[in-house]
Amino acid sequence: MNQARGPRIAVIGAGSMFFGRQAIKGVMSSDVLKTGTLVLVDTHEPTLASMTALAQRAREHSGAPTKIEASTDRREVLAGCDFVVLTFANEGIRYRGIDTEIAARHGVRMCSSDTIGPGGIFRTLREAHEILAVARDVAELCPDAWVINYINPTTCNGILLMRHAPKLKSFALCDGLHMPHRRRTLLRNIGLLGPDETNPELEAKTSLRLGGINHFTWMWGFDVDGEDCLGRYYDYMRSVANDENQKTHSKARNNGRYRLAISEIFGAANMVIGHTKEYVPYWQGYTTNPYYIEPLATFDAPARQQQRDEVFTEIEAWGSGDKEMGEFFESVDTDHATDVIEGMWGNLGKQFYINQPNRGAVCNFDDDAYFELLSDVDMKGPRPVEVGEMPRGIKGLTHQVLDTHELTVEAAVSCDRKVLRRAMLTDPIVNSIPDADAIIRDLLEAEKDALPAGWYD
């Protein structure tokens, strides 16, 4: 590894349902990371206490020498940090529910409601100013740290840091293309690996032309030891197209059918259909004769809140000793961010999908297009691997989504209602000027407590 000591890693928003416990598992399980310091920050004291108790019991169980610090005030603990991971949200589930309900009232359906459409736009508006406040603290207290954004919309917030905190070292992550798991899954899908099998030699001979915007990524090349396997992947998609019809969760329902339909349209295999189906107008229900797949099921905030409550009941049980820590280490996966940090700090030579400026990797886009791409990574930062031209069709859609994200960031920073309106009407699933205006009006009113005062000056 490239350092005599372990890294100091701050998790801002340690109570994140999808990151906090995984980060604890990842740090305590890694020879590279466990000799460092894990800093847990959350403004909600009971949540912070539960996460700290879990971290302490995980350390005791594993025998890791990890130092654990916790604070409700990030400024108390940022000094000396090597990595600062952003995972917080301001009542994220509640406000996503509000976004979903108001948008649907005006004809826009969102199954996730946190990345594109009115939900993605307004989540950016709610979180951007706090993200920039953290960035200012990092610049003052630990200016050499890598800032890793894990807050959706990943692309908007990555662009936000790139454009408005350019002196900081930053990139953004999502777990949808977590490597090497994604490559292995693709090989299993086409029958070249068994369900639990790994084959490093075969994996090394696998080449993917895969990338795009986070939650809107596509694979247009899949070669294994020189053989074109994209057709075999289409056969796999056809074979499972009806498997998920009975799932009721909005991000999972009908995904096999949605994925096959959109992949056949564009000649590129969609990688994250649970989100991508929300980026296109085909299943919005605009027409009197809908496409043969039903319109999107909308995000269910109460069900998501119940899921979060169940997760925290489990966290509290592990932290209190009511549940065995052996079960924690067996049942909780490591996380993409801790895997990336391990690869960077340990100089392990591993590649990961990372959201960052394009820098020529997709040659028919600008260098500053913010893409999720396979990257070489070390303490110098991520460097995207060239994937060539993005095919037409998805190229045009990608430009529209990028413009929506860029305008959203501009609106969030400026609190300019004209720019917000432009972002909303550039968005690919908003097709009515009166509906867009009504959504903006109603969301600005409903979310007044969570939005910067500049929107109301």
Please, could you describe this protein's structure?
- Helices cover 44% and strands 15% of the residues.
- A hairpin with a 2-residue loop joins β8 (216-224) and β9 (227-228).
- The longest helix has 25 residues, at 117-141.
- The strands form two sheets. Strands 7, 8, 9, 10, 11, 12 and 13 form a seven-stranded antiparallel beta sheet that branches. Strands 3-2-1-4-5-6 form a six-stranded parallel beta sheet, with helices on both faces.
- The model has no long low-confidence stretch (mean pLDDT 94).
- It has helices at 20-29, 45-62, 92-105, 117-141, 154-164, 181-189, 200-204, 230-239, 255-266, 273-276, 301-320, 325-331, 336-345, 394-414, 417-426, 433-446; strands spanning 8-12, 37-41, 67-71, 83-86, 146-149, 169-172, 206-213, 216-224, 227-228, 269-270, 351-357, 370-378, 381-384.
- The chain is of the alpha/beta class.
Question: Summed up, what is this model?
Answer:
The chain is of the alpha/beta class and 457 residues long.
Question: What features would you highlight for this structure?
Answer:
seven-stranded antiparallel sheet; 457 residues
Give the terminus-to-terminus CA distance. 52 Å
Order of helices and strands: EHEHEEHHEHEHHEEEHHEHHHHEEEHHH
Mean pLDDT comes to 94
Number of H/I helices:
16
Structural class: alpha/beta
Largest sheet: 7 strands, antiparallel
The count of DSSP E runs of length 2 or more, i.e. the number of strands, is 13
Radius of gyration: 22 Å
Share of residues in strands: 5-15%
